[in-house]
Design goal:
Layout: E1 16-18, E2 22-25, E3 28-31, E4 45-53, H1 55-62, E5 69-77, E6 83-85, E7 89-90, E8 96-103, E9 111-120, E10 138-147, H2 151-154, E11 157-160, E12 173-176, H3 185-188, E13 190-194, H4 198-206, H5 211-234, H6 236-239, H7 250-259, H8 274-287
C-alpha cells in the first residue's frame, strides 16, 4: 500500500512485477474483470496469477534474499465479511512464483478484495539495521477489487416514470423499504429507477460500458448502501431485541449491515451533528467496498 510506512526496507515499485489475475472460464484462462456480470454464488472462482521478482535488485533494496520470501494471496468479501487465504508459494531460482487458488462461491458476495503479498518466511541470517526480520512481514503487496454484485443483482429493480407517482419527478431513484423486520428482505426492498433519467436507466439496464456509466452506478450503489445503513441505525434498538432473525429477512440483512459497520454504536444525529454523521456514513460505505473507490 503506497501510503503505508513500514519499519523496514521495502523494494521499489518496479522490482516486483505483478502479472494480471486470470480467471478460469470453462477451459480457458482470461483476465479477471473488474466486474463479473452474471456471477452465480453457486459457482466457485478459480483464479491464478504470476509474480516475478528481480532478485538482485530486491536484495540490494531490502537486504532480503529470494529464498526467504513467499507469495501469498488473501481475499475478503464486503458483505459476508469472510476472509480466506491461499497457502504461501515459494519463488523459484528465476524469481517466479504462481498463486493458483479456488474461492468458494457461497462465501463471496458484494465486492471482492484480492490482496497479493510478498512476505518474509525466514529471517535473514544477519540482523542488519532496517532489514525485515519477523516472519510474515509484508515487503510488497498489490490489491485488486472485483464487483460480484451490482445494484441490479442486490435488489429487484424496476423502471417507472416518477412523474406519474407520488415521488419527485426530478429524483433519479428511490428505494422501497419496510420496517417489518420479519418480512422477506428481497420481497419488500426494491430499487425504483426514474425512466426520465435516461442515462441512469441505460447504465442499470446494460451495465457499465464507460467511465461515466460506471460513475452513475457507483453513485447509485453508494446511495442505496448509505440508506440501508442509516435505516439500520434508526432501527438499532429493535434489531437488538433478537439474537437472530430469520435468514434473508429485513431484520437479518439490516443486522448484518449494522454489524459490518464501524458506526454500529452511533445514534441518529441531531441537526447540529447531521453533516458529520453523513460524512461518517460515506466513509463507512466506502470501507464496505460500496460506491466509487479511491484511485
Amino acid at each position: 500500500m503506497p501510503a503505508e510506512v513500514r519499519p523496514y526496507l521495502v523494494p521499489q515499485a518496479n522490482t516486483v512485477v505483478w502479472q494480471p489475475w486470470l480467471l478460469l472460464d470453462g477451459h480457458e484462462w482470461r483476465p479477471l474483470p473488474h466486474e463479473l456480470e452474471g456471477w452465480d454464488p453457486a459457482t466457485d472462482l478459480h483464479i491464478a496469477r504470476r509474480v516475478q521478482i528481480d532478485a538482485p535488485r530486491f536484495f540490494h533494496e531490502t537486504g532480503v534474499e529470494l529464498e526467504n520470501l513467499a507469495l501469498t494471496a488473501s481475499w475478503t468479501s464486503s458483505t459476508t465479511d469472510m476472509t480466506d487465504a491461499s497457502p504461501p508459494v515459494r519463488f523459484d531460482s528465476g524469481g517466479w512464483a504462481v498463486v493458483d487458488t479456488i474461492l468458494v462461491g457461497e462465501r463471496l458476495s458484494g465486492v471482492l478484495t484480492l490482496r497479493t503479498t510478498v512476505s518474509l518466511v525466514h529471517p535473514p541470517a544477519g540482523r542488519a539495521i532496517g532489514v525485515a526480520t519477523v516472519p510474515g512481514s509484508v515487503l510488497a503487496d498489490q490489491v485488486q477489487r472485483v464487483v460480484l454484485e451490482n445494484v441490479s443483482s442486490m435488489f429487484p429493480v424496476s423502471e417507472i416514470d416518477f412523474s406519474r407517482t407520488r415521488l419527485s419527478p426530478t429524483a433519479s431513484w428511490h428505494l422501497e423499504t419496510s420496517t417489518d423486520l420479519v418480512a422477506p428482505f428481497y420481497g419488500t426492498f426494491r430499487v425504483l429507477i426514474n425512466s426520465r433519467d435516461r442515462e441512469l436507466s441505460a447504465a442499470v439496464a446494460r451495465g457499465a460500458r464507460d467511465k461515466r456509466q460506471q460513475a452513475l452506478l457507483d453513485e447509485l450503489q453508494a446511495g442505496v448502501a448509505g440508506l440501508l445503513l442509516e435505516l439500520a441505525l434508526y432501527l438499532r434498538e429493535d434489531l437488538g431485541d433478537r439474537d437472530e432473525w430469520p435468514p434473508d429477512s429485513v431484520g437479518d440483512i439490516l443486522s448484518r449491515t449494522l454489524a459490518s459497520s464501524p458506526l454500529s454504536t452511533s445514534t441518529p444525529p441531531s441537526a447540529a451533528d447531521l453533516a458529520e454523521f453523513r460524512t461518517q456514513v460515506s466513509g463507512a460505505i466506502r470501507n464496505l467496498g460500496r460506491g466509487r473507490v479511491f484511485r
